[in-house]
Predict the structure.
Amino acid sequence: MLWERAFHCSDLGRDLVPVIQAFHALDAFRTGIPGPPDPTAPEIAQDYETAAPAPLLLRSWLADHSASLAAGAELEPFAGVPSDLHVTVHGGSSHVARPAAEKELWLCLVDGDAELYSDVSDAPTKLASGGCVVVPPGTPLSLQLGRGAVALSVGFSRLVDGNA
C-alpha cells in the first residue's frame, strides 16, 4: 500500500477530489515507494460487533412474498437489521408517497409499470420493468404502481404510504 486516507464522504464527486489531489502531491505517487505514515491521519475505529446480513437472492425473495406484494404490501427484506440505509419493496396496484428528504433515493421498478410524479417535472415519468431513477434530495415524490408491479427503493429514509 502506498498511502491511506480516511475521510467522510457525503458527495463522492466533491469529497474525493481533494483526497486524490493530496495523493498525487506525494513522493509515493511519483516513485511508487511507500512513504512514512501520515501522523495527522485519524485512527479509524473498527466495528467488530455489527454483522452484515446474509446475501439476498432478490428473485427468490420476491417469489416467496409474491402474494403479499400482489396485495399491495410494502415489505422490508432486511427488517430487523440495524442500518441507516432502508431497503423497501413495494408491490401491487399501490400508491407510494415520500415528502422531500435530505438524502437522495434510488428507485427501481423490478417488474411491471409505474408513473412517478415529482416537482421536478409537470408530467409524470413513466417507468417500465427494469427502469431506475435517482430522486434528488429535497424532492417529494408520488409513485403510482400498476397492477402486478414491484418497486425497490433504497434510501436513508423510508418511503411512506399516503400523503405524509
User: Anything to note?
Assistant: Residues 12-24 form the longest helix (13 residues). The domain at 58-161 is CATH 2.60.120.10 (Jelly Rolls). The longest strand covers residues 121-128.
